[in-house]
Write a structure and sequence with these properties.
The complex is a heterodimer of chains A (about 425) and B (about 525).
Chain A: E1 18-20, H1 34-40, E2 44-50, H2 52-62, E3 72-76, H3 79-83, H4 85-102, E4 108-113, H5 115-119, H6 124-135, E5 140-145, H7 155-164, E6 175-179, H8 184-196, E7 202-205, E8 220-224, H9 230-238, E9 242-243, H10 251-265, H11 270-291, E10 299-302, H12 309-319, E11 323-329, H13 334-343, E12 349-352, H14 356-366, E13 370-373, H15 375-383, E14 388-390, H16 392-396, H17 402-421
Parallel strand pairs in A: 1-12, 2-3, 2-4, 4-5, 6-7, 6-8, 8-9, 10-11, 10-13, 11-12, 13-14
Helix pairs in contact in A: 7-9, 10-11, 10-17, 11-17, 12-13
Chain B: E1 2-4, H1 12-22, E2 26-31, H2 39-46, E3 55-57, H3 69-84, E4 88-93, H4 95-100, H5 104-109, E5 117-119, H6 129-144, E6 155-159, H7 168-181, E7 185-190, H8 196-200, E8 207-210, H9 213-226, H10 239-253, H11 266-271, E9 282-287, H12 289-302, E10 306-312, H13 318-327, E11 332-334, H14 338-348, E12 352-355, H15 357-366, E13 370-372, H16 391-403, H17 409-417, E14 453-456, E15 462-465, H18 467-475, H19 478-494, E16 499-500, H20 502-512
Parallel strand pairs in B: 2-3, 2-4, 4-5, 6-7, 6-8, 9-10, 9-12, 10-11, 12-13, 15-16
Antiparallel strand pairs in B: 14-15
Helix pairs in contact in B: 1-6, 6-9, 7-16, 14-15, 18-20, 19-20
The complex binds iron/sulfur cluster (SF4).
C-alpha cells in the first residue's frame, strides 16, 4: 500500500467549486474519435450518416488523406433523403449493400449518428438491427452517436465502446478488462507489466478484431485507461462487471497508482510489485526529470478538449513542477476522475463546459507560460505572445504508462524550449 | 444519400467563412452545433492565420432542441455585436440548423441591431463551399454597395480573393502591379482585405477585375447591372492569358495596352533545349474550373504538353469545362468523387498530373509526378515566399513548379544510359527529390514478377504480357514505362493481339515513335 500516492495536505480538488459558463464551445464533436478508433479496430468500418460538414470535419481532423479508401466514410444526406424518412432507411440499405460488397474485409460496421441524422430522427438502432440480421454471421452492425449535439470530441469513443458492451457474450471467468483504445505499443506495455505481476487473464476493449472471444460478466473487473469513458463504464456495470477506480496512468506517479490499485485487487504482494515496477519507474522518473526541466515553476492554463485535462494537470503540477491556473474540461465525471481530483492540490480554477470568449479573456489576463488548447485557438494565442500546446496531440500520441512519461512531459516542454531557442528579434 | 470519403469542397457555410475571414470589420453569427467549430482550424492552421476567424457559433445542443435554440441564436448575435462591434454582420445556418428552421435572418431583423445584418440562405444539402463563398459575397455587395461618384483617375476593383484561396494573397500583389503599370490603380480588393465600408465605395471604380469566377461571378454580374461596371472575363494565368487580359483591360478603359515583360522567363525557358524533353508529355488536369482552364492553355501552348484529360469538381463550372475539353479533343470529367478521378487517371496513365492536393496523393500512389494548381488547399499551398499564379511572375512560377516534379532533360538521357549499371537503382527517381522514390505504376518492382500479368482493357477480354515482354518493359526507365505499357496494350488490342511479346512491344514502340 505504500505505493499509493501522497495526497496534498491542503486537501484535493474533489469538492472544490466548479465554474460553469454557457456560451460558445470551441470543441470537436464525437465523430473525431473515428480517426483513431478505425486504426485500432482493424476489421471495422465507420459509416457516418450525416452532411457534407461531417465529411469535411473528418477530413480536416485527419489532417491529410492517409489512405485512398480508409475504413470510414460519410453517407451524405441529400435533399431527397430529408423529404421522407422511410426513404432514408432504404437509401441507407443501398449504401451499406454497396459498401459491404466492395469491402469484403469488413466484419464490424458502425452506423454513426450525426447532428442531421438525429434532428431528422433517423433511427439508426433499427437500421443496425435489421442489417445485423441481414449480414449475420459475417458482419456485425452496431450504432452509436458521434453528433455534436450529443457528444464532445472523445465522447465519441465512449459512445462507440458503450455500443459494443451489450452484445459481448456472457462469461463467468475471472478476468481483468482494460478499457480504452490505446496505441498498440502502449497497450502491450501495460499488459506485460500486469502479466509479470501474475495478473490475468487481461483482456482489452476494444478488441482489435470482431471475432475475438471477448466476453463480460460478474467476475470481470475493469480498469479504464482513459478518463472519458463514462457511458462505457455504466454499460459494463450493467453487465455485472466491477470498476477499479484509480488515478489515470499518466506519468510515473499516475502509472504506479493505477497499477497498484489493480495489483491490490488481485492480491499482488509488495515485493512482486516492487520487482516488476522498480526499473521502469526509475526510467520514467529520470526521463520526466530531464524533459520537465523547462517546465518547473511555469504556469499552465487548460482549455476544455478531451477530458484528459484533470489527470494531465495532476501530472504537470505534481511531477513537472508546474502551477495550474485554470483546468477546463468539457465534462467532470467525479465517479471516474475523483482519484485524480483528490491528488490535485487546490488552487486552480476548475471549469466545466465553456464560454470561449470569456475563457479567452481570463487566459489573456492570466498570461500563462503555457496554454493547452485546440487548433483553432493555438496560432491566434501564439500571435498574442502566448506559448501553446495543441491538445489534440495528447490524444493522437502514445502518452500513457512509464515508458511514455518522458515523452508526455516533452510534449509540454517543447513549445517552451522552442520559444526560448528562437531569436527572431523585433521588427526594425 | 451518397457515400463520400474525401471531399473537394466543404459545406457552403465554409465558403461564407472564407469571405468573412478575408474581410475586416465583418462578423458572422452561425447557427451551428459545437463540432462545426472545427472549421476555425482550416484558417488558423492551414493558412496560419494569426487571428480567430470572425465567427460566433451558437453551439446548440440536443437539450436545446425544440425549446431554446432560437433564443440561443438571439443571445449569440447580441453578444457578438457587443463584443466585436462590427460594421456589419452576416447571419446564417449550418446544415443542422437548416433542419431546425429557426430562421436566423428573420430573427435578426427584429432585434434592432444598429448595423446592417445580412441574412444568408445557403442550402447545405444541395450546394457546396464555392457556391457559399460566391453567394455570401454577392449578398454583402448587394446590401452594402451603392452607386457613388466614379474616381477621376481610372480605377478598378479586384474581386474574388478570399481566405483559404489558392495563392490569392500573391495574385493580388501581382495584378495590382500589372494594372499600375498601365496607369490603373486599385479602388477596393474584395472580399479579402476589405471592410464593409470599403464595399460601400466599390461603385467608385470604373470596372471590376474578376479574378476568380468561383467566388465572385454573381457579384460581378450584379455590379455590371446595377453599378454599370464592366468586368474582365480573362483570368490572367499564363503568358497568353496575361497578354489577353492586358488587351481586354485596354479595351474596357481605352488605355494603351502595356505589359512589362522584362522579368518574364517562361517563353525562353520553354524554348531552351533542355525543355525539349517536355514535348508531348501527357498531362491530366483536374481542379476548380478556372484554374483547370488556365492550366490547359499553358500546358498545351506554352509548355508543349499533350493534354490527355481534364475536368473539374465544381459543378458550377461544368459547362465551360465541357466545351474546353471539346476544344482539346478529350473527355471532360465533372465529378466530386475522388475515387472516380483516381480511376480516370489510372486508365489514362498520364506522365504528369496538374491537380489539387487530392491528385497529389493519387500521383504518389500511382508513381505519377504531380504539380498542384488549384484548391482545396494544404498548408504547403501557403509558401512563405512570393509565389503568385497570375501575371508575369505567375507564369514563371508555373514553369518552375510544373517542371520540378519531372526528371530534367539531360538527366533523362543519363538515366537511360546508365540503366544497366549495377549501381543504378530503377526507382531512384529525379535526383533533386532525395528520398522520395516514386512507386512505379503497375510494376511490382520489388516483388517477384508474376509469370504473366493480366490487364483489363476497355474492350472485351484481357491482354496478357508474356514473361519476356514484361522483363523487357522493366528495362524501360520508370518515367516512360507507364506510357510504353499503355501504348503497347492499345496497340495490341487494336490489332486483336491477346498476348504481348517482346516483338509486340517494339512494334508498338515503332508505331508510336514521334
Ligand atoms: S457537429 Fe454535428 S453536423 Fe457538425 S460535423 Fe459534428 S456531427 Fe456533423
Amino acid at each position: 500500500m505504500n505505493d499509493l500516492p501522497r495526497l496534498p495536505t491542503s486537501g484535493g480538488c474533489r469538492d472544490e467549486p466548479i465554474l460553469k459558463q454557457r456560451g460558445q464551445r470551441e470543441v470537436f464533436c464525437g465523430l473525431t474519435g473515428i480517426i483513431w478508433l478505425h486504426r485500432k479496430m482493424q476489421d471495422a468500418f465507420f459509416l457516418v450518416i450525416g452532411s457534407r460538414t461531417c465529411a469535411h470535419l473528418l477530413q480536416s481532423a485527419a489532417g491529410v488523406m492517409i489512405f485512398a479508401e480508409p475504413r470510414f466514410g460519410t453517407a451524405i444526406l441529400e435533399e431527397s433523403d430529408l423529404a421522407g424518412l422511410a426513404d432514408a432507411q432504404t437509401e441507407l440499405d443501398k449504401v451499406v449493400d454497396q459498401l459491404l460488397e466492395r469491402r469484403t474485409d469488413i466484419r464490424q460496421l458502425f452506423l454513426v449518428g450525426s447532428c442531421p441524422s438525429e434532428v431528422i430522427k433517423l433511427d439508426l438502432s433499427r437500421a443496425a438491427e435489421r442489417m445485423t440480421e441481414k449480414y449475420a454471421p459475417s458482419v456485425r452492425v452496431l450504432n452509436f452517436s458521434g453528433s455534436g449535439i450529443e457528444t464532445t470530441f472523445t465522447q465519441g469513443e465512449d459512445a462507440c465502446l458503450a455500443s459494443m458492451v451489450p452484445v459481448l457474450p456472457e462469461t463467468d471467468h475471472r478476468q481483468l478488462l482494460l478499457v480504452g483504445a490505446l496505441p498498440d505499443v502502449v497497450e502491450e506495455q501495460a499488459i506485460s507489466l500486469l502479466t509479470q505481476m501474475g495478473i490475468g487473464p487481461v483482456r482489452v476493449l476494444p478488441a482489435p478484431r470482431a471475432d475475438s472471444d471477448l466476453g463480460v460478466g460478474a467476475d470481470t473487473v475493469f480498469a479504464l485507461t482513459q478518463p472519458f469513458l463514462g457511458d462505457t463504464h455504466a454499460e459494463l456495470e450493467r453487465r455485472g462487471a466491477r470498476h477499479i477506480a484509480a488515478p489515470f496512468p499518466f506519468g510515473e506517479e499516475g502509472t504506479t497508482a493505477w497499477l497498484r490499485t489493480i495489483a491490490n485487487e488481485f492480491g499482488v504482494d509488495d515485493e512482486t510489485f516492487e520487482s516488476v515496477t522498480a526499473a521502469p519507474r526509475a526510467r520514467a522518473r529520470k526521463a520526466i526529470a530531464q524533459a520537465s526541466e523547462s517546465l518547473r515553476g511555469k504556469s499552465v492554463f487548460f482549455f476544455p478538449d478531451s477530458q484528459l485535462e484533470i489527470p494531465l494537470a495532476r501530472f504537470l503540477t505534481r511531477e513537472c513542477g508546474m502551477q495550474a491556473i485554470e483546468v477546463g474540461a468539457p465534462f467532470i465525471h467525479k465517479g471516474i476522475i475523483g482519484p485524480d481530483l483528490d491528488m490535485l492540490a487546490q488552487g486552480p480554477v476548475l471549469s466545466e463546459g465553456q464560454d470561449v470568449d470569456l475563457q479567452l479573456d481570463r487566459c489573456r489576463a492570466a498570461r500563462p507560460d503555457l496554454t493547452v488548447c485546440g487548433l483553432g485557438l493555438a496560432n491566434p494565442l501564439e500571435a498574442e505572445g502566448l506559448s501553446t500546446k495543441w491538445a489534440i496531440e495528447l490524444v493522437f500520441t502514445p502518452v500513457h504508462f512509464y515508458e511514455q512519461a518522458g515523452d508526455l512531459a516533452g510534449l509540454f516542454s517543447r513549445p517552451l524550449r522552442r520559444s526560448d531557442l528562437l531569436q527572431l528579434g523585433v521588427r526594425a | 444519400m451518397k457515400l463520400t470519403v474525401w471531399t473537394y469542397e466543404g459545406p457552403p457555410h465554409v465558403g461564407a467563412m472564407r469571405v468573412a475571414t478575408g474581410m475586416t470589420g465583418l462578423h458572422y453569427v452561425l447557427h451551428a452545433p459545437q463540432g462545426d467549430t472545427y472549421a476555425d482550424l482550416l484558417f488558423t492552421m492551414i493558412e496560419r492565420r494569426d487571428h480567430r476567424p470572425p465567427v460566433t457559433y451558437t453551439t446548440f445542443q440536443a437539450r436545446d432542441l425544440g425549446s431554446d435554440t432560437a433564443n440561443l441564436f438571439k443571445k449569440s448575435l447580441e453578444d457578438a455585436y457587443a463584443r466585436y462591434q462590427p460594421e456589419a454582420l452576416i447571419v446564417g445556418a449550418s446544415c443542422t440548423a437548416e433542419l431546425i428552421q429557426d430562421d436566423p435572418g428573420g430573427m435578426s431583423e427584429t432585434m434592432g441591431i444598429p448595423v446592417p445584418v445580412i441574412p444568408l440562405e445557403l442550402p447545405s444539402y444541395q450546394r457546396k463551399e464555392n457556391f457559399g463563398a460566391d453567394e455570401t459575397f454577392f449578398q454583402i455587395v448587394r446590401t452594402l454597395a451603392k452607386p457613388v461618384e466614379r474616381t477621376q483617375q481610372i480605377t478598378c476593383n479586384l474581386i474574388g480573393p478570399t481566405a483559404l484561396g489558392f495563392r490569392h494573397r500573391d495574385d493580388i500583389t501581382e495584378i495590382t502591379a500589372l494594372l499600375s503599370d498601365m496607369g490603373i490603380s486599385v479602388n477596393v480588393v474584395a472580399p479579402m482585405t476589405s471592410s464593409p465600408s470599403d464595399i460601400a465605395r466599390m461603385g467608385a471604380a470604373h470596372f471590376n477585375v474578376l479574378m476568380y469566377p468561383e467566388t465572385a461571378e454573381s457579384a460581378a454580374r450584379w455590379m455590371e447591372r446595377e453599378l454599370d461596371q464592366p468586368y474582365t472575363k480573362t483570368v490572367p494565368i499564363g503568358v497568353g492569358a496575361t497578354r489577353d487580359f492586358v488587351r481586354e483591360v485596354a479595351e474596357i478603359t481605352g488605355l494603351d495596352p502595356y505589359l512589362d515583360e522584362s522579368r518574364l522567363r517562361l517563353p525562353w525557358y520553354s524554348k531552351s533545349v533542355d525543355s525539349t524533353y517536355l514535348t508531348g508529355k501527357r498531362v491530366f488536369i483536374f481542379g476548380d474550373g478556372t484554374h483547370v482552364a488556365a492550366a490547359a492553355r499553358v500546358a498545351r501552348d506554352e509548355m508543349g504538353f499533350e493534354v490527355v484529360g481534364l475536368g473539374c469538381y465544381n459543378r458550377e463550372m461544368a459547362r465551360p469545362v465541357r466545351s474546353l475539353a471539346k476544344d482539346y479533343g478529350v473527355g471532360a470529367l465533372i465529378t466530386d468523387d475522388y475515387l472516380e478521378v483516381e480511376r480516370s487517371i489510372e486508365a489514362l496513365q498520364p506522365e504528369m498530373i496538374l491537380g489539387t492536393q487530392m491528385e497529389r496523393h493519387i500521383g504518389k500512389r500511382l508513381g505519377i509526378p504531380c504539380a498542384v494548381i488549384s484548391a482545396p488547399v494544404h498548408v504547403q499551398d501557403f509558401p512563405a515566399r512570393y509565389s503568385p499564379q497570375m501575371g508575369i511572375e505567375g507564369a514563371n512560377v508555373l514553369f518552375d513548379t510544373w517542371v520540378h516534379p519531372l526528371v530534367m532533360g539531360l538527366e533523362e538521357h543519363l538515366l537511360h544510359m546508365f540503366r544497366d549499371d549495377f549501381e543504378f537503382h530503377d526507382a531512384a527517381g529525379p535526383s533533386h527529390h532525395g528520398g522520395h522514390a516514386p512507386k512505379a505504376a503497375n510494376d511490382a518492382t520489388s516483388a517477384p514478377a508474376p509469370a504473366a500479368t493480366e490487364t483489363k482493357t476497355a474492350g472485351d477480354g484481357c491482354v496478357i504480357w508474356l514473361d519476356d515482354a514484361e522483363r523487357e518493359l522493366k528495362k524501360i526507365p520508370f518515367f516512360v514505362r507507364g506510357k510504353a505499357r499503355r501504348n503497347t496494350e492499345t496497340f495490341a488490342t487494336e490489332r486483336g493481339v491477346s498476348e504481348i511479346s517482346v516483338d509486340t512491344l517494339y512494334e508498338a514502340k515503332a508505331h508510336y515513335a514521334r
